[in-house]
Design brief:
By secondary structure, the chain is α/β, with parallel strands linked by helices. Helices cover 41% and strands 14% of the residues.
Length: 218
């Protein structure tokens, strides 16, 4: 389990639910205090390099969105039958309440914040999470069926999402972005579509891109 705040929130979630785990990727002298606290709870720290020599021994690998999915240890683990998922996917599997997911190239954070405030007026324990800066896995255990999740979702977070399927989804816009990671616009669009998993959304996005291109030509 790797990278940034989401890395140790995922590991903390695993520890709290009775699983053992690793946090990998930090240099030892750069390990955050929160990760050191988890080490006291039995979460092992694997520091200084990618976990190539232990990846295939795991039952589950949870990737933070900052980690490219084409690293060798990920492919090796999947080839060995290890499931590799995103932090969002991990939290989703434990969520019992409805989810609103918001994505797009621009405007995600503003829209997620506004939507969260609206929902809090109706359901005060609404969790506003995801790419907005609050890891989903940090909040999931405090939620009940009567609560609500409003999640800002990035394309990076969807790369290893498999079952993630929110009750309400919004794609605000799509313009070329993160192509150094996704390589092509088609892959980038596919990541935005993935959280909706509907042919209707694919048609909607294609029409949106067509209209944007037509506007650019005017």
């Amino acid at each position: 389990m790797r990278h940034g705040k989401k890395r140790y929130c995922s590991s903390g979630f695993a520890a709290e639910t009775g699983c053992s785990g690793y946090i990998a990727g930090y240099e030892r002298d750069a390990v955050p205090a929160a990760a050191l606290e988890l080490e006291k709870e039995g979460v092992a720290l694997y520091t200084g390099k990618n976990p190539d020599d232990i990846a295939c021994e795991q039952d589950l690998i949870v990737l933070s969105p900052g980690i490219p999915c084409d690293l060798p240890f990920i492919g090796a683990a999947e080839a060995a039958g290890v499931e590799v998922i995103s932090e969002v996917e991990l939290a989703y599997r434990e969520t019992t309440c409805p989810i609103t997911a918001i994505t797009g190239t621009n405007g995600k954070t503003t829209t997620t914040t506004l939507t969260g405030e609206i929902m809090k007026a109706v359901r005060p324990n609404t969790a506003v999470v995801g790419n907005i800066g609050v890891p989903y896995s940090e909040k999931v255990q405090g939620l009940t069926e009567k609560d609500w999740v409003v999640a800002e979702i990035s394309s990076f977070q969807m790369e290893k999402a498999k079952e993630f399927h929110p009750h309400i989804s919004a794609v605000l816009n799509i313009t070329p972005d993160h192509l150094n990671r996704h390589k092509t616009m088609e892959v980038y669009i596919a990541m935005k579509e993935r959280k909706n998993r509907t042919a209707y959304l694919h048609s909607l996005i294609e029409n949106l891109i067509k209209r944007m291109n037509e506007d650019d030509m005017k």
